[in-house]
Amino acid sequence: MTDTTIEAPATPRLKQQYNDVIVPELEKEFKYSNPMQVARVEKVVVSMGVGAAARDSKLIEGAVSDLTKITGQKPKITKAKKSVAQFHLREGQAIGAYVTLRGDRMWEFLDRLLTLALPRIRDFRGINGNQFDGNGNYNFGLTEQTMFIEIDPDAVDHQRGMDITVVTSTKDDKEAQVLLKHLGFPFKEN
């Protein structure tokens, strides 16, 4: 009989930091008696709208391929709910794509976003800290996909922006902002 050992996959770096450093700090800061009361990131949604796909259906394929490279997960294609003649849009036509990240894949994406992608933005001075939705969730947009190292700038056919939503377990914006600051989100100083 052979003796095989199965190694557990490595814990993402940001998740390890959250569990070891950030949770105790937030417990002290908000005076929680239980670590389960501390806010945590539940999911990250990355969406890419492709309005020009109404005229050229091949553009949606580029968006799907870019999102797949960036997130490591196949995106779901969003379709138009109504026909709008002025926009040359028909009901059921593909107009965008989105990915919902949870678990280790979410932590890996956040780590790459904060340490590699955001610093590559030209003249970057931080992200706006006033874009919380009132329920502890943070939304922000990026203007192009080439800031991610997975995307080859020479192979980009069309510049596409994306919206990123970070959903937290808290319903308080202030607590969510403190959590994201501890995670390393570079908010602008107002």
UniProtKB/TrEMBL annotation:
<keyword id="KW-0687">Ribonucleoprotein</keyword>
<protein>
    <recommendedName>
        <fullName>Large ribosomal subunit protein uL5</fullName>
    </recommendedName>
</protein>
<dbReference type="InterPro" id="IPR002132">
    <property type="entry name" value="Ribosomal_uL5"/>
</dbReference>
<keyword id="KW-0699">rRNA-binding</keyword>
<dbReference type="InterPro" id="IPR020930">
    <property type="entry name" value="Ribosomal_uL5_bac-type"/>
</dbReference>
<dbReference type="InterPro" id="IPR022803">
    <property type="entry name" value="Ribosomal_uL5_dom_sf"/>
</dbReference>
<comment type="function">
    <text>This is 1 of the proteins that bind and probably mediate the attachment of the 5S RNA into the large ribosomal subunit, where it forms part of the central protuberance. In the 70S ribosome it contacts protein S13 of the 30S subunit (bridge B1b), connecting the 2 subunits; this bridge is implicated in subunit movement. Contacts the P site tRNA; the 5S rRNA and some of its associated proteins might help stabilize positioning of ribosome-bound tRNAs.</text>
</comment>
<dbReference type="GO" id="GO:1990904">
    <property type="term" value="C:ribonucleoprotein complex"/>
</dbReference>
<dbReference type="Pfam" id="PF00281">
    <property type="entry name" value="Ribosomal_L5"/>
</dbReference>
<comment type="subunit">
    <text>Part of the 50S ribosomal subunit; part of the 5S rRNA/L5/L18/L25 subcomplex. Contacts the 5S rRNA and the P site tRNA. Forms a bridge to the 30S subunit in the 70S ribosome.</text>
</comment>
<comment type="similarity">
    <text>Belongs to the universal ribosomal protein uL5 family.</text>
</comment>
<dbReference type="GO" id="GO:0005840">
    <property type="term" value="C:ribosome"/>
</dbReference>
<dbReference type="Pfam" id="PF00673">
    <property type="entry name" value="Ribosomal_L5_C"/>
</dbReference>
<keyword id="KW-0694">RNA-binding</keyword>
<dbReference type="GO" id="GO:0019843">
    <property type="term" value="F:rRNA binding"/>
</dbReference>
<dbReference type="GO" id="GO:0000049">
    <property type="term" value="F:tRNA binding"/>
</dbReference>
<feature type="domain" description="Large ribosomal subunit protein uL5 N-terminal">
    <location>
        <begin position="34"/>
        <end position="90"/>
    </location>
</feature>
<dbReference type="InterPro" id="IPR031309">
    <property type="entry name" value="Ribosomal_uL5_C"/>
</dbReference>
<comment type="function">
    <text>This is one of the proteins that bind and probably mediate the attachment of the 5S RNA into the large ribosomal subunit, where it forms part of the central protuberance. In the 70S ribosome it contacts protein S13 of the 30S subunit (bridge B1b), connecting the 2 subunits; this bridge is implicated in subunit movement. Contacts the P site tRNA; the 5S rRNA and some of its associated proteins might help stabilize positioning of ribosome-bound tRNAs.</text>
</comment>
<keyword id="KW-0820">tRNA-binding</keyword>
<dbReference type="GO" id="GO:0006412">
    <property type="term" value="P:translation"/>
</dbReference>
<dbReference type="InterPro" id="IPR031310">
    <property type="entry name" value="Ribosomal_uL5_N"/>
</dbReference>
<dbReference type="GO" id="GO:0003735">
    <property type="term" value="F:structural constituent of ribosome"/>
</dbReference>
<keyword id="KW-0689">Ribosomal protein</keyword>
<feature type="domain" description="Large ribosomal subunit protein uL5 C-terminal">
    <location>
        <begin position="95"/>
        <end position="187"/>
    </location>
</feature>
